Amino acid sequence: MSVLIDAHQHYWETTRGDYDWMPPDDPVLTRRYMPADLAPSLQKHGISRTVLVQAAATVEETEYMLGLADASDSVAAVVGWVDFENPDHLRHLKRLADHPKFVGVRPMIQDIPDVNWMLRDDVQWGYKAVIDLDLTFDALGFPPHLENFLTLLKQYPDMRVVIDHCMKPQIRNQAQGPEVLRFWADGMSRLAEETTACCKLSGLVTESNEDWTPEDLRPYADHVLTAFGPERVMWGSDWPVCQLRASYDRWRGTAESLTAHLSEKGRAQVFGGTAMRFYRLET
Fold first, then answer.
1. What is the domain range of residue 186?
2. What are the beta bridge partners of residue 53?
3. How many domains does the chain have?
4. Which long-range contacts (CB under 8 A, 24 or more apart) does 13-21 make?
């Protein structure tokens, strides 16, 4: 039986004070989320392992997550953060890389006002270090970042990259016309064709309207699955962020319906196999 993996989820303790992106007093987000909160959903869906991803732009949060991973058998890997604007953080990256569950980093590029930040000379050491230390890079951005990510990934073809949340297509804006979908789709196709990046089938619900339906998401899921192929797509819940639009159960069920046309082997890749290979998780 194939191992089922949630390739993208979060835990946090908001009183730590470094989740700067989080709205104050948000009824969904601004609360404590720990492994015991997610455990019932993982058990219900037979998911044995998760990839815990950073949600704060601090090394301290990464260390906090590694502590949770040490105490949680279900956490198979941690994607953390270091400051790409500070070359001295190479020492942190080397230290973190010694932890058996630390697999890679994710700069919070979507929150950086300068769309060209990733191409700045002063941050290039970070990509080189990721390659040298054989770590992974989670690419977090929006459609306006597509062209620059293509440039970056072609500049560093040896960097193991996964695109988070399908690059967050603005599904809620699809009423503006087909050009919104086309711009995103063309950019994703080029990333699929011209790089070796994988893509996370995650985050789509939070880019949709509150009254979203599976059919609203289907064109985006279909494009990702066709462009990258199941062997380069991995499912993630983005829990607890997904709860802004859907419960864990609803998003998981929707993802299963969006992939129902795939072969059994293809579904096994999306729901576990791709993440196992990309993050090099132990069997």
1. 5-278
2. 79
3. 1
4. 13/64, 16/56, 16/60, 16/61, 16/64, 18/56, 18/57, 18/58, 18/60, 18/61, 19/55, 19/56, 20/56, 20/57, 21/55, 21/108, 21/111
Query: What's 181's domain CATH number?
Result: 3.20.20.140
Q: Would you write out the chain's pLDDT as a tens digit for each of its 283 residues?
A: 589 999 999 999 999 999 999 998 999 999 999 999 999 999 999 999 999 999 999 999 999 999 999 999 999 999 999 999 999 999 999 999 999 999 999 999 999 999 999 999 999 999 999 999 999 999 999 999 999 999 999 999 999 999 999 999 999 876 666 887 899 999 999 999 999 999 999 999 999 999 999 999 999 999 999 999 999 999 999 999 999 999 999 999 999 999 999 999 999 999 999 999 999 998 6
| 266 C-beta neighbours (distance < 10 Å), count | 17
H or E element at residue 141: none
β pairing state of 75-80 and 136-139 = unpaired
> How far, in Å, CA of 8 to CA of 80, rounded?
12
The amino acid present at 187, given as its one-letter code, is G
- Beta-ladder partners of 138: 162
Q: Is 128 helix (H, G, I), strand (E, B) or coil?
A: helix
Is the residue at 283 inside a domain? no
Nearest Cα neighbor of 7 from 198, 247, 156 is: 198
C-alpha 80/C-alpha 130 separation (Å) is 12
Q: What is the phi-psi region of residue 190: left when phi exceeds 0, alpha when psi lies from -120 to 50, beta otherwise?
A: alpha
